[in-house]
Design goal:
- This protein is an alpha+beta fold.
- It has a single domain, classed as Alpha-Beta Complex (Peptide Deformylase).
- It is built from four helices and eight strands, in the order H-H-E-E-E-E-E-E-E-H-E-H.
- The strands form two sheets. The protein has a five-stranded antiparallel beta sheet, sandwiched between helices. It has a three-stranded antiparallel beta sheet with strand order 4-5-8.
- The longest helix is centred in the first third of the chain and has 16 residues.
- It is globular.
- The two termini are about 20 Å apart.
- The structure holds zinc ion.
- The site of zinc ion (ZN) has 6 residues, from helix 3.
């Protein structure tokens, strides 16, 4: 296991770059995804994208169906959000790369995402609510976008002591 360092800061060039597609679905990619998963679980996040651990490639992992029986972790490689509902939904977000910051962000309520799994098999998922939110947040990361870029004018960014906040109610999970 390689311990990955989490990149932080709104001006961090790695977090601000547009990431490149993954070309090789090999053992190195598997290992990298495994290490990302460890980093996410250590931080109790609901998702983590490759740029957050220093690699500008189009890959992220997400927790789907958080806190339900069907909860599972998925790796999405070269994802594309192909449909977005007109209906939007507001929800609180935090980010492992912006420690202690939380704010309400508008996201599409439902999306369809196409991606490749680690075996290079194309997958399509229709997602809604928190699942859709997590994927939109992570997809932003591979485009160099952070949730603070998406706040409505005058929106409040809450600053919270991260250590005290860890593991609190799911609205405050970081992605
Ligand atoms: Zn994030």
């Amino acid at each position: 296991m390689t311990k990955l360092k989490i990149e932080t800061g709104t001006k961090n060039p790695i977090l601000r770059a547009k990431s490149k597609p993954v070309k090789k679905f090999d053992a190195a990619l598997r290992k990298f995804v495994k290490d990302m998963r460890e980093a996410m679980m250590k931080e109790e996040g609901l998702g983590i994208a490759a740029p957050q651990v220093g690699k500008n490639i189009r890959a992220f992992i997400v927790v789907m169906d958080y806190n339900k029986k069907s909860e599972r972790i998925l790796a999405m490689i070269n994802p594309e959000i192909v449909t977005k509902s007109e209906e939007m939904e507001e929800g609180e977000e935090g980010c492992l790369s912006l420690p202690g910051k939380f704010a309400k962000v508008m996201r599409h309520k439902e999306i369809t995402v196409e991606f490749f799994d680690l075996d290079c098999v194309r997958q399509v998922l229709n997602l809604r609510n928190l699942n859709a939110r997590v994927v939109q947040h992570e997809n932003d990361h591979i485009e160099g976008v952070l949730f603070v870029d998406r706040l409505a004018e005058g929106a409040i960014i809450e600053e919270i002591d991260v250590k005290r906040k860890k593991g609190d109610k799911d609205g405050e999970k970081r992605i």
